[in-house]
Amino acid sequence: MKEKENDIANRISYVQNTLAAISGKWKLPILMSMYAGKNRFRDIQRNIPNITTRVLSKELKDLEANKLIIRIVHDSYPVSIEYKLTTYSFTLTPVVDEMIKWGRQHSKGGL
Question: Tens of pLDDT along 60-70?
Fold first, then answer.
């Protein structure tokens, strides 16, 4: 019985870890925008209705801390900054695809 309880506790811990990395109103939309090729701050912001500059900046820092994106500063005048998805971020693709399927089904009233 103790072994099963540990398994459940571990599974819950893993889900919480995943949610900590991608939860919230904005992180997945930001990643989805970047999957679509939007890599500059303003392009990402234009692609996501109602996200503020402050919130986008904070969320990009969080995504970078979780190794889902990298920030690249180009030494030009004026300085230009772009964000790139990491290889690691693409491991979320099946998760996002399943969320899209579930959300589509849920919007139609469930099963």
Answer: 999 999 999 99
Q: What is the dihedral of CA 25, 66, 32, 104, to 10 degrees?
A: -60
Three-state DSSP class for residue 82: strand
Please name the residue that has the structure tokens 């009233």: 109
Amino acid (one-letter) located at 62? D
pLDDT digit string (tens) for 79-97? 899 999 999 999 999 999 9
- What domains are defined for the chain? 2-107 (1.10.10.10)
Q: Flag the least confident range among 4-13, 29-38, 46-55, 90-99.
A: 4-13
d(CA 106, CA 111): 8
Q: Are 76 and 64 in contact (CB under 8 A)?
A: no
Compute the CA torsion angle 35, 38, 41, 43 (nearest 10 deg): -140
Q: What is the CA radius of gyration of the chain?
A: 17
Which pLDDT score is estimated for 3? Answer: 64
